[in-house]
Input
Amino acid sequence: MPPELSFDQPALLVMLFAMGAVVGSFLNVCIFRLPEAESIVSPPSRCGSCGRRLGFIDLVPVFSALVFRFRCRYCGHRYSWQYPFVEALTGAIFAGAAYVFGPSVEAAVTIVVSCTLIVILFIDLRYLIIPDGLNAIILCSGLVLDAYLLWTRGWADAAVKFKEVFAQPLGTPPLSIDQEIAAPTHLVYLPRSIVGMLIGAGLFLLISWAASKLFRKDAMGSGDVKLAGAMGAVLGGGYVFLAYALVSIVLGAVVGVVLIALKIRSRRDQIPFGPMMAVCGIIMLFWKTRSRA
Output
C-alpha cells in the first residue's frame, strides 16, 4: 500500500510553497492595480518601465528575480524587491498553514485571510488606504469558519456563551449572593464572528476617538477600524483578539517613534497603521487555537 499522505512531508510542503509563490505573483498584481481601479485580470502582466508584456520565464516566482537580478530582461530597469518578497512570503504561508493546521477549513481560512492581509499591508503602506472589499473578504472568512464549526461541532466551538440571570420584578429587594447563585439562569449563544466583529470595531473606534482628542487630529482611519472588526470576526472576541489589538498598538507606537527619531517621518506626517495590523494579524492566525477561545 502507498504511504498515507501527510502535510508534514517535505516534498508536499515544497509543492505547496511553489503553489503559494504563484498566488503571491497574483497578489503583486492586486497590490499595484486595485488602488488604481484597474482590472486584476486584463491586461496581462507587463514591465512598468518599458511596457513589454512579460513572458512565462519572467513570471516564474522568486526564480526569475534571482536569475535576472531584479531587472527587466528587456529594458534592464530595476524593479522593486516587493515582487519576490511577496511571492516568497505567500509560499511560506501556504506551506505553514498546511503544516500547522493540516488539511482543514481552518488552514484554508488562514491562507485566504493571510493573503488578503499581505495585499492590505502593501496598499496601505504605499497609498494610505485600505479598500473595503479586502476587509469584506476577511469578514466573510470569519463568518464561513463559524458556519463550518457550527455545522461540524455545534454551538460549543462556534459561539460565545453568556449566562443571563432571571430578572426580578421591580420593587422587590435585591438578591443576596447565595440567592443570585441559586437563581434560574439560561445560556445565550451568539456567533463568535459577530461578537468579535462588534468588539473589534468598537474597541478601535473608541481608541480612534480618544487618540483624536488627545492629539487633536485624526489618529486612525476608518479603514483601520473596519479591519479591526473584520479581524475580530476571524479571531473571535476573546484573549486572542485582545492580544492582537495590544501588539498592533504597541508595534505601531514603536514604529512611529523610530521613524520620527530617524527623521524619516515628522510628527505631522500620517503613518499608516494598517501594515502593523496586517503583520500582527498573520502572526495571530498561526498562533490562535482552533476553537478561538
